[in-house]
Write a structure and sequence with these properties.
This protein is of the alpha/beta class. It folds into two domains: about 190 residues, Rossmann fold; about 130 residues, Phosphofructokinase domain (Rossmann fold). The protein is about 35% helix and about 20% strand. The chain is elongated. The structure holds 6-O-phosphono-beta-D-fructofuranose. 6-O-phosphono-beta-D-fructofuranose (F6P) binds next to strand 12.
Length: about 375
């Protein structure tokens, strides 16, 4: 096997706290441990197709571990295998993977580190099948990748949501209101579940447990009679009533995963106010959950993932994703990394914990 002299790195999909810490760790490990050069592609796979890259060195990645976002830029729209452009004023989709591979070869890259969620890892897997050495790094605030215990960025999002709940508590209590906090997470309820337990929610609604508005009203009425006049509800954007559907906010046709969820908080507020006369207010936390500095846990996890990704790629173990299993960083095949999304299991210890302390899941 030829010695690797240079590798590429890109960040794909939605941004997530900890991306810069991974970029920094990949770059420092490649240079310090192996004397290997690093280039970073701008705006994810779009940069790979357009050969838009920047050299990364010890100076350019210095002082970025604590910064949110990604110094490389990202997009959740550009798939080289179904690449979007506008031709003659019309949307046009074409397979530009050969162009991307030609760029990799022309730059003399020994492989790519792809930092992304399931969409980007799917693309990474397709490149690996075409012979490109690739190592994936599991990124997403949603924590919905089944082949790792934790994705980086998740705990920062939970922290943000939990802090929001602390703030909603004091105003809910003062006004004797029901406060609904809608959080992200796509089709998995991890952010809602963890933030809800941490932030003292009375009701947690997740996609895995369809809810009945009557069960929620019963919980808040009981609280009004027996303990507190206010209640806090955390609802995941993918939650849905037993007799209804998830609320889709918009459709993004150029995206690998075109459905954008959002709006269940307002729908729920109307459902509650239709049954009771209790004042209900909604806060949609939205992209605040993706922004800002990663908490120390995510800086450390992202750094461990970045080091392992560079080591595996340069030492020839490609076609894999780095993964946290228990306390150890290991690797799983890219095929396994995209095989299924990880939802909250109904027998989860976290759900049992919530129920034991009196949290309603709306069922
Ligand atoms: O996957 C991360 C995530 O923030 C989801 O929780 C959310 O559904 C989606 O991305 C939002 O995407 P966009 O940034 O395109 O609105």
């Amino acid at each position: 096997m030829a010695k690797v002299k240079r590798i590429g790195v890109l960040t794909g999909g939605g941004d997530c706290p900890g991306l810069n810490a991974v970029i920094r760790a990949v770059t420092k490990t490649a240079i310090n441990e192996y004397g290997v050069e690093v280039v970073g592609f701008r705006d994810g796979f779009k940069g790979l197709v357009n050969n838009d890259y920047m050299p990364l060195n010890l100076a350019s990645v210095s002082g970025i571990a604590h910064r949110g976002g990604t110094i490389l830029g990202t997009t959740n729209r550009d798939n080289p295998f179904n690449f979007h452009s506008i031709v003659g004023g019309q949307d046009y989709f074409s397979d530009e993977s050969a162009r991307a591979i030609a760029n990799i070869q022309q730059l003399g890259l020994g492989g790519l580190v792809v930092i992304g969620g399931d969409g980007s890892l799917n693309i990474a897997h397709r490149f690996a099948e075409l012979g490109v050495p690739v190592v994936g790094v599991p990124k997403t605030i949603d924590n919905d990748l089944s082949a790792t215990d934790v994705t980086f960025g998740f705990h920062t999002a939970v922290n943000t949501a939990s802090e929001a709940l602390d703030k909603l508590h004091t105003t809910a209590e003062s006004h004797h209101r029901v406060m609904i906090l809608e959080v992200m997470g796509r089709y998995a309820g991890w952010i809602a579940l963890c933030a809800g337990i941490s932030g003292g929610a009375d009701v947690i609604l997740i996609p895995e447990i369809p809810y009945k508005a009557e069960a929620i009203v019963e919980k808040i009425t009981q609280r009004r009679l027996l303990t507190k006049k206010f209640s806090i509800i955390v609802v995941a954007e993918g939650a849905a009533p037993q007799d209804g559907e998830m609320v889709v906010q918009k459709y993004v046709p150029t995206s690998h995963d075109p459905i954008r969820l959002g709006g269940i908080g307002n729908q729920l507020s109307q459902e509650i106010e239709a049954i009771t006369d209790i004042e209900t207010r909604v806060t949609v936390l939205g992209h605040l959950q993706r922004g800002g500095s990663p908490i120390p846990y995510d800086r450390i996890l992202a750094t461990r993932y970045g080091v392992a990704a560079a080591e595996n790629l340069i030492e020839g173990n490609s076609g894999v994703m780095v993964s946290l299993q228990g306390t150890k960083i290991t690797t799983v095949s890219l095929q396994e990394s995209i095989s299924e999304i990880r939802k909250v299991p109904l027998d989860s210890d976290m759900i049992r914990t919530g129920r034991a302390i009196g949290i309603s899941f709306g069922d």
